[in-house]
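Why do we care about 3D structure at all? Because function follows from shape, and shape follows, mostly, from sequence. That is the central idea of this module. The next example makes it concrete: a single protein chain, its amino acid sequence, and then its structure expressed as tokens.
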Amino acid sequence: MAALGREAGADQRDGRVVPVGAGEVPKNIKMATYTHGQPSPPRDAELGKPMVIEIIEKKIEYLRKEKALNIYGTVCFGTTASFSGVLANFIFRHCFKVKHDALKTYASLTTLPFLSTIVAYKLFVTDALYSGNISKENCVLRSSLTGIVCGVLYPSALAFIKNGRLAVKYHTVPLPPKGRVLHYWLMLCQTEIKAMGIPLFFQTILGVFNGLQHYAVFESTLEETVHED
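And the structure:
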């Protein structure tokens, strides 16, 4: 009987109501804490990577478009300056009746205006535009002045000097009197020199158009780049 009583007491003590899963609470809490502390899957990085690539591709496309316009516009500008140099050389050779060193003079009057126009346009227009210290009106003014100076005045002066030296060297025209040298040379070609008004007109129009278009593309590229950022 005593043994049965002890077993019954033991069963009663062991039969206490224990909440289901009470012993697993610390484990569950630990698992929850571990799960919360783990880094989330890099979904943001996976979603952001294509967006970054797309932005970079758009920027490259904008820069390629602006670079293409800059190259084509500058080359076109320099080509018209070369034609202006050829015309100026033809006019002064005809005025001074020079028939020597034709290839040499035409080569220099074709190459030098082309190179001077490209270099001047880069220095006074393109670099100033990239620095951000130039307005639309200033860009157009610089572009047109580059066309006038490097595409008309410089070729005319260069052709005048080169062919004038050849005229003096080979005595194709009478020598000018003392004290009126420049006036004498200008009087020899005052009629033919008016033909240089044709390249003057075209260089001015092309300079204005090139400056407007280059500034418009630069502004649109800048705005789109800032918007993408």
